[in-house]
User: Fold this.
Amino acid sequence: MKVTLVPIGNSKGIRIPKAILEQCHFTKEVDLLVQGDTIILKFIKREARQGWDEAFKAMHHNGDDRLLIDDAMDLKVKDWQW
Assistant:
């Protein structure tokens, strides 16, 4: 497929048809590789829960990992409703 380069600020880009974006599962980011005079765009496969370990460590470091509701709550307390 032949496409035209279009100016984007000081750079140039191409428009990728919606059908091709869907076929390749491209959403917001792609992996761009250059091999010789060839540009390759690849789908970035994300692992489930990727980055959660680092996020939980940062939460602990910032003190954001404490319970919001005490899990030892007495359910026989007066005025308690389910």
In short: The chain is about 20% helix and 20% strand. Helices lie at 18-24, 52-62.
